[in-house]
Amino acid sequence: QVQLVESGGGLVQPGGSLRLSCAASGSIFKILRMGWYRQAPGKQRELVAGITTSDGRSTYADSVKGRFTISRDSAKNTVYLEMNSLKPEDTADYYCNVDLVTYSTYSRMDSWGQGTQVTVSS
User: Fold this and answer.
1) Three-point CA angle 89, 92, 94, nearest 5°
2) DSSP secondary structure string, 1-50?
3) Per-residue pLDDT tens digits for 9-57
4) Do the beta carbons of residue 18 and residue 118 sit within 8 Å?
5) Distance between CA atoms of 95 and 120, rounded to whole angstroms?
């Protein structure tokens, strides 16, 4: 059993900042990749940022490059998303995603967080 607990969402004014966190726990043998997705009302879920745990290589959606920073703490199985210079179009539900191998089955799987809401509005 794997659980992802997200936190850090909320209401912020344009230009403000938020820091999301996602802690993975459970029968985790190895985390291969951690990432953040978001889904705005009426829109398809999209990748915001991802980071590999092996080399720390990160990727970002073009819309957030230069504003968002993804990082991770491997010891805590936690991934963070620092969001700066937030814009109204960043408003969405943000979901943590972890690509991992479980202890229980030693099989690879994707695990998703419950989502945390980010609202950017004045």
Assistant:
1) 130
2) -EEEEEE--EEE-TT--EEEEEEEEESEEEEEEEEEEEE-TTS--EEEEE
3) 999 999 999 999 999 999 999 999 999 999 999 999 999 999 998 888 9
4) yes
5) 16
